[in-house]
């Protein structure tokens, strides 16, 4: 009997130990956590189509609109004019830039003018006897003749006899020889064709100037032009008179210009068209590098977004019921950072910033500020 009791107790003890062990073992097992759904917060914008100005960026260097390269047509010693012939020297319109010694040539001109005067004086008695009706006008011509001034124009010949008589005495030939010499004498003095500044000087006072030698460069420092090359697809958009905003590379100065000319042909090698922008400002200098923004046209019923939001297949992400989707768009213009798009309905919610790893069907949560949330709540209450 005792052995039976001990056996039963032993079995019960073993069963109890197994039960307790199972409880302890089960209590140490960790439950696998259920993963939470990750919802990305995205920045969005609501489409509102409007008129978008298409601005074409361009750049180039300023060049003076009016420029003169100074060349000598005669030979002689360069004489002083009261102003140093140096780069940076300013001159008014009509002021003497260069004076070349013309003493010897001037003497030849005066000699020819004197011969013309003597020739006319020699025929005056014959005119008084044979052509009394034309004598007064020739007498008046002699009276107005001044060797120190430009030779006046010969009187108008009213009859064939008068013309034959005057021509037969070589008066007309001598007159035109004198005018030819006077024209060449004027080339010994070079005057400023307009007010401006000397940018290059290749001779100095006292140096010998030779025929055909370049003397310097003179520009109008009040008006400049910038030549820009644009793609041929903008040829129909560029208009003469269109205003242009310009700025320097540091964006510290801004200027206003206007499209003055557009080339009528396209460069065959680069397939670009050249436009010229005229700009006036006292602070500008020739050779300055500027950036320009040309207002090519205005596109109606369009939006402008960051270029990186448009895929290679011309699609963008939209948000529909907190889920990303894609729609096709029609690009009108691409700049370096922006894209102008059409065919997007008003009220469409699009991404305003790119989302890494975004895909159609992705669950998202639009980011709303307190101001936006208050506006949404106000709209719902009104409804």
Helical stretch tally: 6
Strand order of the largest sheet: 3-12-15-14-13-16
Mean pLDDT: 85
Helix content, binned percent:
25-40%
What portion of residues belong to β-strands? 35-45%
Low-confidence stretches: 369-380
Question: Termini separation (Å)?
Answer: 90 Å
Shape: rod-shaped
Q: How would you spell out the order of helices and strands? A: HEEEEEEEHHHHEEEEEEEEEEEEEEEH
Q: Report the major sheet.
A: 6 strands, antiparallel, barrel
Total beta strands: 22
Q: Classify the secondary structure makeup into a structural class.
A: alpha+beta
Number of domains: 4
Roughly how many Å is the radius of gyration?
Answer: 46 Å
Structure description:
The protein has 383 residues and is an alpha+beta fold. The protein folds into 4 domains: 44-50 and 300-382; 55-64 and 223-298, Efflux pump adaptor protein, beta barrel domain (Elongation Factor Tu (Ef-tu), domain 3, Beta Barrel), CATH 2.40.30.170; 67-101 and 188-219, RNA polymerase II/Efflux pump adaptor protein, barrel-sandwich hybrid domain (OB fold (Dihydrolipoamide Acetyltransferase, E2P)), CATH 2.40.50.100; 104-186, no CATH class. Helices cover 27% and strands 35% of the residues. It is built from 6 helices and 22 strands. The strands form 6 sheets. A 6-stranded antiparallel β-barrel has the order 3-12-15-14-13-16. The two termini are 90 Å apart.
């Amino acid at each position: 009997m005792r052995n039976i009791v001990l056996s039963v107790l032993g079995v019960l003890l073993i069963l109890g130990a197994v039960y307790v062990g199972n409880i302890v073992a089960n209590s140490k097992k960790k439950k696998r956590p259920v993963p939470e759904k990750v919802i990305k917060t995205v920045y969005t914008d609501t489409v509102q189509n409007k008129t978008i100005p298409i601005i074409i960026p361009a750049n180039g260097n300023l060049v003076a609109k009016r420029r003169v390269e100074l060349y000598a047509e005669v030979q002689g010693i360069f004489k002083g004019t009261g102003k140093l012939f140096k780069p940076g020297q300013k001159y008014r319109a009509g002021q003497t830039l260069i004076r070349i010694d013309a003493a010897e040539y001037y003497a030849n001109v005066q000699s020819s003018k004197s011969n013309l005067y003597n020739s006319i004086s020699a025929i005056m008695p014959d005119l008084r006897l044979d052509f009394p009706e034309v004598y007064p006008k020739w007498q008046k011509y002699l009276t107005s003749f001044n060797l120190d001034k430009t030779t006046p124009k010969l009187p108008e010949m009213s009859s064939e006899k008068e013309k034959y008589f005057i021509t037969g005495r070589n008066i007309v030939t001598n007159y035109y020889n004198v005018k030819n010499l006077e024209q060449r004498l004027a080339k010994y003095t070079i005057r400023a064709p307009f007010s401006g500044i000397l940018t290059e000087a290749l001779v100095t006072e006292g140096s010998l100037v030779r025929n055909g030698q370049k003397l310097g460069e003179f520009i109008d420092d009040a008006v400049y032009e910038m030549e820009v090359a644009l793609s041929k697809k903008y040829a129909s958009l560029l208009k003469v008179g269109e205003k242009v905003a310009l700025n320097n590379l540091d964006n510290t100065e801004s200027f206003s210009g206007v499209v003055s000319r557009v080339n009528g042909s396209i460069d065959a090698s680069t397939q670009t068209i050249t436009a010229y922008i005229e700009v006036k400002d006292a602070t500008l200098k020739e050779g300055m590098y500027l950036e320009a923004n040309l207002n090519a046209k205005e596109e109606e019923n369009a939006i402008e977004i960051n270029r990186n939001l448009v895929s290679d297949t011309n699609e963008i992400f939209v948000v529909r019921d907190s889920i990303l989707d894609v729609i096709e768009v029609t690009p009108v213009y691409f700049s370096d950072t922006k894209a102008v798009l059409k065919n997007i309905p008003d009220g469409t919610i699009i991404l305003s910033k790119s989302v890494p790893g975004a895909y159609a069907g992705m669950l998202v949560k639009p980011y709303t500020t307190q101001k936006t949330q208050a506006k949404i709540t106000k709209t719902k209450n009104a409804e």
